[in-house]
Structure to design on (512 residues):
């Protein structure tokens, strides 16, 4: 009886290895297809490169551990974006708690130490920012440099979210045209 | 197809896009070089105004390598799951036996409150496995009760439990899975965990993922490998960094015995495999052994025990007879 079960067990082990390799292949395909987009999406939410990479990595890790998702999910791509989103929300929530203890929250403000531009370029960027219409500029600053959510800006300025969206679009358009030649 | 412009780009770059929006925009970007250039220009502007370059790119191959390396390290956990798949075959053999117990000891009732139909399930001495409406799996311990709607139609997936149950919850971030047990609520997205209710406390042991337990006043996050304890009387939460995997072996059939007595081992196996042990000599219960089993067929487990302790075994119906002359 015992040798029989040992034989069955090693066959099982072999089959499992095969299944695992196949899963690895399938997950690898999704990874190569969607990594860039997922990483960018995570970055827009977290504004931190390492954390964004971690987010995408852990989502794929989980997929490898739960290969049955591959059959179950209607769209793996949608599942991946959902998962990255929720992972990032958790990171942000965690960050909030941590920041409540440590007061020195660092949001990307204009011209940090690691700036890579010459003083001439900086001057042009500042001029472009100054050229924005007042309300448009205020909204853009709150989003870009204070890290505020659209909804929070809308509440604070007593505007609709749609207005904030439109003003942000307008700001980017103006800046993009003005800075096109210098930001390459 | 939707045409994208600065408004959409900046919304995305500012971190305001929903997963659906992000996915659609990324697919649009991947569609043509012109699209990519338009987006890149917006992205350069967005990061450029703070004096930064666009996020540095990360090496695709390197990242994939790290993921597969990590996956290898966590091989054991993954293996358990895969074993779960394969051993479905083995489990099929046991199914015939187990089915008899299902019918003998388990009660299912249906009732309707308002427009909602509920299912209530009670177990007797035998462990019962049940699938929930969303495909999640629950394994109910002895004398446990579970109650849930026939369809999870609202914004969450509510389940009411008493006594003991092990859950493998299908991930659905939009619909949290909530187990209520006494005053305590256990909230999860997708994970595996065990709940044990005693007279004075509820223990939540997490085998994978993260769960949040709360009683409306306070709450606690319990992560993989940890055990959260809720003291019902004092309403205090306690977090323990580990738990004995054998205590949830009834559901997982994963056992790790380290110098355990046969007495202890038979109690655990009896629960997990819905069987009963008869020893020809009570002294056999004092025999000690070490071994580990990950979701093995009952015959295999009995073979190993018999070989290790020099015993004979016989499996008749639901009873295992162990015969031997004691251990040294």
């Amino acid at each position: 009886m015992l040798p029989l079960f040992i034989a069955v067990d090693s066959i099982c082990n072999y089959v499992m290895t095969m299944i695992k390799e196949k899963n690895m292949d399938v997950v690898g395909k999704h990874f190569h297809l969607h990594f860039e987009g997922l990483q960018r999406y995570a970055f827009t939410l977290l504004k931190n490169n390492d954390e964004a990479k971690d987010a995408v990595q852990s989502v794929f890790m989980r997929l490898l551990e739960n290969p049955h998702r591959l059959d179950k999910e209607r769209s793996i791509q949608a599942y991946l974006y959902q998962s990255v989103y929720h992972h990032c929300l958790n990171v942000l929530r965690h960050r909030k708690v941590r920041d409540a203890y440590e007061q020195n929250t660092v949001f990307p403000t204009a011209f940090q130490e690691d700036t890579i531009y010459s003083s001439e370029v900086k001057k042009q960027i500042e001029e472009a920012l100054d050229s924005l219409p007042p309300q448009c500029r205020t909204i853009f600053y709150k989003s870009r440099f204070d890290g505020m959510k659209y909804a929070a800006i809308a509440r604070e300025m007593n505007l609709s979210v749609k207005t904030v969206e439109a003003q942000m679009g307008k700001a980017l358009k103006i800046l993009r045209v003005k800075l096109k030649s210098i930001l390459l | 197809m939707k045409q994208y412009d600065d408004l959409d780009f900046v919304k995305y770059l500012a971190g305001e896009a929903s997963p659906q929006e992000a996915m659609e925009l990324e697919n649009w970007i991947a569609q043509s070089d012109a699209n990519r250039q338009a987006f890149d220009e917006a992205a350069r502007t967005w990061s450029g105004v703070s004096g930064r370059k666009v996020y540095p790119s990360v090496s695709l191959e390197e990242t994939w390598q790290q993921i597969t390396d990590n996956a290898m390290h966590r091989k054991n956990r993954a293996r358990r799951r895969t074993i779960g798949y394969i051993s479905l075959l083995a489990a099929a053999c046991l199914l015939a036996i187990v089915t008899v117990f299902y019918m003998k000891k388990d009660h299912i009732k249906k009732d309707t409150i308002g427009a909602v139909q509920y299912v209530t399930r009670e177990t007797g001495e035998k462990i019962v496995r049940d699938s929930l409406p969303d495909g999640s799996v629950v394994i109910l311990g002895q004398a446990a009760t579970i109650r849930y709607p026939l369809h999870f139609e609202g914004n969450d997936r509510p389940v009411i439990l008493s006594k003991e149950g092990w859950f493998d919850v299908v991930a659905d971030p939009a619909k949290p899975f909530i187990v209520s047990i006494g005053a305590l609520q256990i909230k999860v997205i997708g994970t595996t965990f065990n709940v044990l209710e005693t007279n004075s406390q509820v223990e939540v042991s997490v085998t994978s993922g993260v769960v949040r337990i709360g009683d409306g006043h306070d709450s606690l996050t319990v992560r993989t490998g940890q055990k959260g304890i809720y003291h019902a009387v004092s309403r205090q939460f306690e977090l323990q960094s580990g738990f004995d995997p054998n205590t949830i072996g009834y559901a997982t059939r994963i056992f790790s015995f380290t110098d355990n007595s046969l007495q202890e081992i038979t109690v655990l196996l009896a629960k997990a495999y819905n069987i009963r042990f008869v020893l020809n000599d009570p002294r056999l219960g004092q025999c000690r052994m070490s071994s580990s089993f990950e979701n093995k067929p009952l015959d295999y487990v009995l073979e190993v025990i018999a070989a290790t302790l020099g015993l004979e075994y016989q499996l008749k119906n639901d009873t295992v007879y162990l015969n031997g002359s004691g251990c040294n």
Notes: The helical segments of chain A are 2-46, 49-65, 69-72, 76-101, 119-130, 134-144, 150-157, 161-179.
